[in-house]
Design brief:
This protein is of the alpha+beta class. 28% of the residues lie in helices and 33% in strands. The chain has a five-stranded antiparallel sheet, with helices on one face. The chain is globular and about 30 Å long. About 11% of the residues have low confidence.
Length: 114
């Protein structure tokens, strides 16, 4: 019985720590004078911090951030949907709120969809 309870507890814990993804269309791409990149994505809110083009931020190096900026700008201009993956289980709902920082919620991957 203890073995079953332990297995169930570990299964629930691993589910809560899993990554999740959200998607929407890029409405705006902002960059500040200090190099911070912000995205507004339909269904996910306005002006959410992603990364910085001059310093490492979360999972992203400055080089990766510059590519993200270009990629998201192209997605916006082409009216494409993007998918974002997050690894922090504390906030695993894709709701239309101003999260303020995708970085804080464990953003680790972005994709422009066809």
């Amino acid at each position: 019985m203890k073995k079953i309870i332990t297995t169930l507890a570990l299964s629930v814990a691993s589910l809560s720590a899993q990554a999740y993804d959200c998607w929407g269309k890029v409405k705006t791409v902002d960059i500040t004078p200090a190099g911070s990149v912000y995205l507004s994505i339909t269904g996910l809110g306005e002006a959410n911090y992603v990364c910085n083009v001059t310093q490492k931020s979360g999972s992203f190096t400055p080089e990766a951030c510059r590519v993200i900026f270009s990629q998201m700008l192209a997605a916006s201009m082409a009216d494409k949907t993007v998918t974002l993956w997050f690894k922090n289980g504390e906030f695993n709902s894709c709701t239309a709120t101003n999260w303020s920082s995708f970085h804080r919620h464990g953003l680790y991957h972005l994709r422009v969809n066809q």
